[in-house]
């Protein structure tokens, strides 16, 4: 859905939003017309060169235009991720920015062990729901962690505060989605499309 130019614009915009928020200076670059469409997105910050997570916040569903979504979650990833202290402006020299542009959620048409046939590592992200519990993992996470499908399902459950094997039980619902992911190769450096590939099914 998104061109490489769209992805580069998204990442550059996210960095500009964060740095303007932290410094109180700068102007935001314009975005292509497609960013007026409502869509979910995540912004992720990673240390360089270690690639350790420094912040990640997003909207799974399209509640506002994509440009406004990126603007909101970029600031949140830098300053409101409860797992980390707020980013300070000097840190931005050592942080690489990544933006995930999401497709709408799709109900996974399976339960129990049959779920492994409906989820492809490197293609799908997952949302799990049981009662009030909800957990989300982006498509790039199982690739980076080298998980098979069953491990991906287990870790999504744990993200929701459920047991690792909850996906095999009743009263649990999974949704899948895809993402086009764009990242800085290094802080303020080249922006590329992340080639996650499909690692196949178990």
Give the topology, please.
Elements lengths: L3 H20 L17 E7 L5 E7 L6 H14 L15 E8 L3 E2 L17 E6 L2 E5 L2 H6 L3 H11 L13 E5 L1 E6 L6 E3 L9
Antiparallel strand pairs: 1-2, 1-3, 3-8, 4-7, 5-6, 5-7, 8-9
Helix pairs in contact: 1-2
Q: Outline of this structure?
A:
With 202 residues, the protein is an alpha+beta fold.
Q: Can you describe this structure?
A:
The structure is a single chain. By secondary structure, this protein is α+β, with helices and mostly antiparallel strands. It has two domains: 4-103 and 179-193, Hypothetical protein ph0010, domain 1 (Glycoprotein, Type 4 Pilin); 106-177, Dna Ligase, domain 1 (2-Layer Sandwich), CATH 3.30.1490. It has four helices and nine strands. Mean pLDDT is 94; it is low at 198-202.
Low-confidence stretches: 198-202
Number of domains: 2
In sequence order, what are the helices and strands, one letter per element?
A: HEEHEEEEHHEEE
Count of discrete alpha- or pi-helical segments spanning 4 or more residues: 4
CATH architecture of the largest domain: 2-Layer Sandwich
Q: Tally of extended strands? A: 9
Distance between the termini: 28 Å
Q: Order of strands across the widest beta sheet?
A: 2-1-3-8-9
């Amino acid at each position: 859905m998104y061109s490489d130019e769209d992805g580069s614009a998204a990442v550059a915009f996210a960095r500009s939003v964060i740095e303007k928020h932290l410094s109180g200076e700068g102007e935001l670059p314009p975005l292509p017309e497609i960013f007026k469409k409502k869509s979910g997105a995540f912004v992720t910050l990673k240390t360089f060169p270690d690639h350790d997570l420094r912040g990640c916040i997003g909207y799974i569903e399209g509640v506002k235009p994509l440009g406004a979504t990126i603007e909101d979650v970029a600031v949140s990833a830098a300053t409101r991720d409860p797992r980390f202290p707020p980013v300070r402006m000097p840190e931005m020299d050592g942080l690489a920015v990544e933006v995930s542009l999401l497709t709408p959620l799709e109900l996974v048409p399976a339960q129990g062990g049959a779920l492994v046939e409906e989820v492809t590592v490197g293609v799908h992200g997952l949302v799990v729901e049981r009662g009030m519990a909800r957990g989300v993992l982006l498509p790039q996470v199982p690739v980076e962690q080298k998980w098979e499908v069953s491990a991906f399902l287990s870790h999504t459950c744990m993200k929701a505060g459920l047991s690792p094997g909850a996906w095999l039980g009743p009263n649990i619902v999974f949704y899948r989605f895809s993402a086009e992911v764009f990242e800085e190769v290094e802080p303020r450096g080249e922006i590329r499309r992340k080639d996650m590939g499909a690692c196949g099914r178990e």
